[in-house]
Amino acid sequence: MNNLTKRNPVLLIHGIWDTSAVFNPMTAYLSQRGLQVYSFDLIPNDGTIGLDILARQIAEFIDRTFTPEQHFDLVGFSMGGIVSRYYVQRLGGIDRVQRFITISSPHYGTLTAYSRMLPGYVQMRPGSSFLQDLNDDVTMLEKINFTSIWMSYDAMILPAHNSQMPVGKEIKKNVLFHHQMVKDMKVIQVIAEELEAPIGNRG
């Protein structure tokens, strides 16, 4: 790692039906590399409230945990990536977050979101007004180190390419199952490398 790289604290945001425990392997690895890692549970985690409301929980956690001048890095898995995008793009996070990584997040929606008629599910459907609003000004993410990590065959994100983004850096890593994207060591190592990359260096 470049000695000039700024080591921000890292906040991990889990996905639907998950808790912060899903990040245990990643937290252990990043901590061993000297990073300060934080996570918390989004409540409720089942789609019964809107993702915009969950994003406010991120803002509240940040206000409780970090000083106003503290920059930090943000990692969101699956639904957590979309919740995190709302925080970054709509709740002022763009001025606090320096490195932002999404992992297998349905940036352009997923057909699996049609399985339930709940607010969070409706917002994650392809073409939803919620996602369209975020994607209309997706270029604002070019202001920070943004990385989207996705897999080609993802049973949770249908079609899988809806995890791709037109901005930032794209990394494709194929594992067997959706949840392995936050547990597979090769993926975790890539995430660590992105978190240790100098700000503004997208090479």
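The record above closes out task 2.4. Task 2.5 opens with a second protein, given below.
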Amino acid sequence: MAGGKNRTAAPTLAEAVGQTYPIVALVLQGGGALGAYQAGVYQAMAEAGVHPNWIAGISIGALNAAIIAGNPPEKRVERLQEFWSTICQSALLPALPALPAFDSSDWPVPVQNGFSAWAAWRALTEGQAGFFVPRMPPPFLQSHPAPVTASWYETAPLRATLERLADFDRINDARAMRVSVGAVNVRTGNFAYFDNTQGPLRAEHFMASGALPPGFPAVEIGGEYYWDGGMVSNTPLYKVLTGRSSSDALIFQVDLWSAQGPLPRDMGGVAERSKDIQYSSRTRMITEYMRLMQEQQRLLHDLMALVPAARRGDPAYRRAEAAASCARTNLIHLIYRDKPYEGHYKDFEFSIGSMQEHWHSGLADMHHTLSHPQWLEPPGPARPFVTHDVHRGGEGV
């Protein structure tokens, strides 16, 4: 307005995040068919203009990472939708008609459970389009199967899907986005990360991260063979926390298995609960360990400021300087919550209806998170590492 005071428009949420955090990371856990939840989370981030500059994934999280990193921001959600619409079709026969998002108000839970179990059985017997198909002949009918092909399914269709939906030149542009995916060396049992800052990534790096035995075969990379990273650690959080140098970071950690759950009442419940515990076991431990480490690094940094300038050339000071850090971490933790109809087969139940349900859950959870911009504010010096959990009211830890 003429004659009025100049006013600077308040920054948008995306602008505030970009101005505050040099690193905005998206950390994606493994969990098979549940990974559509991560796609919904990313859609909400994209709608808000919050784009990660580092994405780390394991198993299905690595496949989602390939689609996100392998496309320009304006195409990522569309390509994720195409990816999930592809792999949620049977590899052999037409798909079942999708229930209306398995809405419990329209369908009794036992009916939903029956459809879900049937879809999981079809995945086991028919495979999933653009993902995996049953190996023929099956391994028990092969007289001398090669060690690297000993598996129930072949994953050649996944390579074609990744190469069709992801631009690997873009994936390997580490200046635009850093990409890290985890796998396990079959021969040594050692965990390994493939990172585009250390060498080019190809389809096999992402396939290796999701090569869960005995279903999927090991993937050869550089003369070694790799299986699913979730066999050792199902979350790549440690990679991001230890590899970000001394930069402040906003980390969106999207988990697909909940460490907490009800006591099982039958064998199906035992199988489901054991999976939840197995694949979520390291998340809380790594988070707590890194929180304590960062608090110690900050304390060391503050103590070093008290050392007289004349003593700062001392070798002990130099060693402490290398170990200290004033970096701050804000960890936004989202965890997929089970639906009433799901069973122990939820990670290989690829029906269109369940995929839509998972996707919408992730979308809603991230919309809720971003509606509380105070959760994205940087931590203070007294608490350099804070976490916010959408399912616990966003409380800091």
